[in-house]
Task: structure prediction
Amino acid sequence: MIAAYIDEIIMFCAGLWMASVGFGYLTFPGNPANRPPVVHHFKWMGPLLLAIAIVLAAAS
Result:
């Protein structure tokens, strides 16, 4: 039970970070020229991860 909450908290924090980077509130660490291509998808992946974490928290 506690492990599920810890997992959901980690997912929620990762979703917040991904959404913040995707929408430009935070910068991705390192050289912008060497950014992985997946960073462009953080705009939709971050909110999706937040929604999944919230649904899983409500279900447990």
About this structure: The helical segments are 2-22, 42-59. The radius of gyration is 13 Å. Residues 15 and 49 are 5 Å apart (CA to CA). The mean pLDDT is 91.
